[in-house]
Amino acid sequence: MEEQKKQILNEDLRKLLFKFSLPAVTGMVIAALYNFADTIYVGNGVGPDAIAGLTIVLPIFIVIIAISLLTGIGAASIISRSLGKGDTDRALIAAGNSFIINIVLNIIIIPIFYFFMDEILQFLGASPVILPYASEYLSVMLFGFILFSLSINANNLIRAEGKPRASMYVMLVGAVMNIILDPIFIFVLDMGVRGAAIATVISQVFTITFIIFFFRSKGSIYHFKKEVFYPDLKIMKEIITIGFPSFLLEMIASIMFMVFIKIVRIYGGDSYITITGIAIRIIDLIFMPIIGVSHGFSPIVGFNYGAGSHRRVKNVLREGLIWTAAVAFVGFILMVAFPQLLLRMFTNDPELIRNGIAPLRIIAVCAPLWSVPIIGGAFFQAIGKAKPAIIINLARELLVFIPAVIVLPLFFDLQGVWISWPFTDIFAALITGGFLIREIRIINKTMKLEEAAV
Question: What are phi and psi of 161, to 5 degrees?
Fold first, then answer.
C-alpha cells in the first residue's frame, strides 16, 4: 500500500493516469462492445423493429443496474475502508449483506415486471408493432436479470479489494460469450429476439460461474462462510445510505430515457425509436472509455488532494480533461462524418439509414463536451465535495435534458428532440465549468497561502 501511495504522489501523471485507467477503460469498452454487437446481430438477423423492441426495454435494464449499484457501490465503500483498517471480517460481512439486499430487491421487482410486462412496455412507448419484440425479449431476460444484477454487484466488490484486472475479466467473459452465442441463436437456430435474450442469459451464467471460481481462489479475500450472510442491520443501512446516490442517478437516467423514447414516438414513430436505439449503442461506445478514465482518474486526484499536492491535482485534472476530450472528439468525427457507415452496421433499410443521418449528426454536434461533466463529477467526488458532484449529475438530467426534450419539440417538431442533446451538452459543460473554475481558484489561493507561509 505504501509503495502504491508513493507511486501516486510522485510518478509522472500521464503515465500514472494511463496505468490506472487502462483496466477500467478495457472493461468498459468490452461492456459497450457487448451491447453494440448484440444490437448489430438483432438488427441484421431480425430487423429494425426488433432494435426498437430492445430499445424500449432499456429503462427496465437501467432499473436493474440501479439496484446493482445501490448494493455494489455501497458495500465497496465499506469494504475498502475496512480493508484499509485491517478489518477483513467487517469487509466480508458487508459483501455478504450486499448480496442479501440485492437478491431481496430483485425478488420484489422482477415479478412486477413479469406480471405487468405488456402494460409496462406500453407505458414505456411500445406500439403494437414493437410490443411483440419487446415482450419476447424481456420475458426471457427477466430470468437472467438476477444474474446480471449479482454480477455487477460482485464486480464492485472485486474492485474494492484492489483487483481491477479480475474485474475486467468478469466483463470480458460475459461479453465474449455473448458475442459468440448471439449469431448461433439468432442466425443458426433462427430464434430471433428470443435467441438474443437466451444468449445473453447463458453469458451471464458463465459470468457468475467465473465470479464464483474467483471468489474461491487464493487471489480473493472473499472465501465466504455462511456467517457473513446473516443480516447485519447496521451494515445494511450503511450500504443503502452510501449506495443511494448512485441508485438515484440511475433511476433518474431511466426516467430520462423513458421520457425521451415517448417523445420520439410522438413526433417520429417506431422507426425513430430504432434510430434512437442505434444512436445509444454508438454513444455508449464513446462514453464508456471516458467513464473508464474517470475511474482511474479518481484515486489519483483523491490521494494527491489528501496529501496537499495541489499542483498535481490541477495537472491531473488537466490530463483527465485532455484524454477524455480526445476520445469524445473521435466520437464526434465518426458520428458527424460517417453516419451512413455506422447506420449500415445495424440495418440495410435504406429509409432508416436516410432518416438516421440527421439525428446522429445533431446528437453529436457537441460531443467534444461530453467528457466535461463526467470528469468534473468524478473530480468533486474524489476531493470529497459531494454537493457539486450531485448538482452536476442531477442538473444535466432533471433540470436541463428532460425539460429540453419536452419543450424544444413544441417549436422545432422532431428536430427539437435531437436538438435537446447538444442543448443539454452545452449547459452541462457550463455548469461543470463554473464549479471547476471556482474550485481551481480555491486551490490556487491555498497554494499561495502555503507558499507565503514557507
Answer: -90, 10
